[in-house]
Write a structure and sequence with these properties.
This protein is mainly beta and about 160 residues long. It is built from two helices and twelve strands. A hairpin with a 5-residue loop joins strand 1 and strand 2.
Length: about 160
């Protein structure tokens, strides 16, 4: 759900599928919406059981924002971070229900890719957010053959 706040910034609610993690994206109209078809995103979705949520061809919809735009109000203790390879990106998900939440690159690069599994864009708010502006790593892959090496990095306290 998209709501205009007191400061006229569009706010997009986010939450995990069981509702233990809740937050919002602030100034959501300043985000960049895209679909990623990389093998890492496909393996990650399959690992967490979200492979049925992928777009046709195996794409994961991501809303690209800055860290300052993301707010987590409850359930921080359920956020878990994983990497699929030593050089891979940090993938944050809900420990409670395995919902993918966001991706980050490093502490020095101000980027957060929020996974569409935790937000909903429909006719009411799509005009404000806008359509998908890009597709990345267009090589499609058969996700049934995808195998991921999963390295648990840490569980936030």
């Amino acid at each position: 759900m998209l709501v205009l706040g007191r400061d006229d910034m569009a706010r997009l609610a986010i939450q995990c599928s069981c509702g233990q993690i809740m937050g919002e994206i602030i100034d959501a109209q300043q985000s960049q919406r895209c679909v990623c078809f990389c093998q890492d995103c496909q393996s990650y979705a399959q690992l967490l059981g979200y492979h049925t949520e992928l777009r046709p061809g195996g794409g994961t919809e991501i809303l690209q924002i800055t860290p300052a735009q993301l707010r987590i109000y409850c359930g921080r203790d359920q956020l878990t971070c994983a990497k699929l390879s030593e050089k891979g990106i940090y993938r944050w998900y809900a420990h409670c229900c395995q919902t993918p939440i966001a991706n980050t690159i490093s502490a020095t690069i101000p980027f957060v890719g929020v996974n569409s599994a935790c937000y909903h864009i429909d006719g009411e708010n799509e005009e404000e957010i806008g359509p998908c502006a890009g597709m990345y790593k267009g090589k499609m892959r058969d996700r049934r053959r995808s195998k991921a090496r999963f390295i648990l990095v840490f569980l936030l306290d």
